[in-house]
Request: fold
Amino acid sequence: MLTLACRRHFGSWDLECDLRWRGEGICALFGPSGSGKSTLLRILAGLDRAADDQLLWHNAALASLPPERRRIGLVFQDARLFGHLTVRGNLLLAAEKGQGRWQPDELARRLGFYELMAQPAQALSGGQRQRVALARALLAEPTLLLLDEPFSALDRRSRLHLIHELQTLQREAMLPMLYVTHAMEEVSMLCDELILIENGRAIAQGAPDTLFSRLDLPIASRDDAGVILSANLQQWLAPEQMAELHVDGQPLFVTMPAAPDAPGPVRIKVAARDVVIATEPLTHSSLSNSLQTTLQDLRDVLPGQTLLQLALGQQILLARITRRSAERLALKPGSRVYAYIKAVSLLGEA
Ligand code: ADP
Ligand code: MG
Reply:
């Protein structure tokens, strides 16, 4: 169990945060830029200490301890390495703090930078540095690992790959992690819990899918508001280069240029702005993916924009339409509506 109570005042901005987390698995700290996420990690790591901080980690009081006595690892967003040392040199230095749980070569292979081991760290690109910084943090074998947007310098494909690897490493080592990001798909793929940070406060906490589907939180007014759904890949259609998915039993076709490894569970992201609502089936339209849903709730989230919460079997879909359209269609809780999906991103296996 982690409990933290801390206060900070930086000019007119203040942070007043009470965190409680069971201290297992991967928990996301999610919130807009400037909300205080990095500050919280610095406080947890001991880089920013104040006399009245309270910090308990599995019953040990850490607030008065310097960073090196906390056994809390921190991967900075800018992946600070010793530039004059080689990649291997950076890893060996960190491994001295650990008990030999990991081999540097093995981690370098798994995190995709083995060919860089002899390079000086200062010669690496931002993305390469982030991979090395993660390996270095693991080698020191902390009891808690804090990650501050650790893959922000990587392209989406590499990021999804590393997220998958990080999840495997986390399970092997049973190492609890707090993961700062502002990418919803990273949260949904990696984290079993989510703490929303807004303006120096923790304002909500729970399962990521539950929080993302709520209408009353600040994330509902993000331009990329949306949900991650569980689906099942049924078959791949070679001539059309599409996959047929089932979402709570209803078919959904998504573009897929190559055959998948196997049918089975997948996760998809559907942004609220990519959902079109109709009260009757659309016939003369290019839109063909329609899901039958029941409107649960609706709320204005941006000027003139209404967010709809749609029940789809056991899962929730969000749709954002104009208030004018919501009024024209006379949408009310309980209305049966067709949700046409304009775009889906496939996040990989569940
Ligand atoms: P985030 O990581 O969520 O983007 P930060 O924790 O970096 O947010 O910053 C939160 C706020 O605290 C910002 O307004 C930032 O300017 C301020 N801040 C953080 N550390 C300091 C500091 N040492 N001195 C003054 N202001 C700071
Ligand atoms: Mg930050």
